[in-house]
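Replying to the earlier thread about multi-chain prediction with a worked example.

Input:
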Amino acid sequence: MIAVSICLITIGILMKQPESVLHKAVRICMECIGLG
Amino acid sequence: MDRKKIRFGIQAAATLIQNANFKGFFTGRIYEGASKSVCVPGLNCYSCPGAIGSCPIGSLQSFLSGVRFKFPYYVLGLLIFFGAVLGRAVCGFLCPFGFLQDLIYKIPFFKRNSFKIDRYLRYLKYIVLLLLVIILPLTFDLIPFFCKYVCPEGTIAGIILASVDSNVRNVLGPLFSWKLILLLIFIVTGLIVRRPFCKYVCPLGAIYGFFNKIAIYRMTFKADKCINCNACSKACQMCVDPTKDPNSMECIRCGECIDKCPTGALHMGFTEGKIRTVPKKVKK
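Result:
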């Protein structure tokens, strides 16, 4: 399981998915705080 | 040192570390550093001014509800990693909202942890996971249904932001009122029942629950030491019987059963040998 997870994380990093997470997380999410 | 005190210390430290952008609580500005590209193991809204990491459930929904669908390799990988190593120990030790519920439960009040519909309500979190976190965000673009309509962590972030930022305060509406009512329900219920959100609603707990039986951090039950006193199952606030299922999907690894066991039949840790959950048959 750990090996599978590391593979998935690696694929995600190669696909630059952490940047998508960062892009979403550095702005206030209006839906999350109940303003959407 | 007492197990309860150690767990309390870890919970407090994990909550502080995951919300280490302390000045954000006063300025209302959320953290924009690179660490936000990493998902934290517990439920901690990334819109909270203190958050220095991302919420895994929020991130998962943002991938699933995007205009262009992207398979969430990265977020799923992190969730599987946390699950495979710790299982629901994440809920018991690292989740800030779990810690808040533990603190609420410490307030002296009428307590009741077992009631008739409890076992049926437990299935609600799997429905929440399937419907609000996966199916609806996949169906409707750009709507993180769980975050928008349910997540009480986001409401706390909203309260903090509204208290320091007049622009946020001015746009509070019916959705915020709905989420505030839900948060109050979880708080009031949390005075009576231990961790109602974790037991019945949390999709993250539902995910980690699947890993409890295979996680490296696990509980073992030595049947030959058990004297069937049931002290462990009576002590369990999550209503698990560790003698029947020491790695139940509901167990958050708080260890209260271990503290109550008079014979040391239960053990929890990373390094365990052969697991025996069935009593030895005595040859006549």
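Chain A is about 60% helix and 0% strand.

Feel free to reuse this layout for your own posts.
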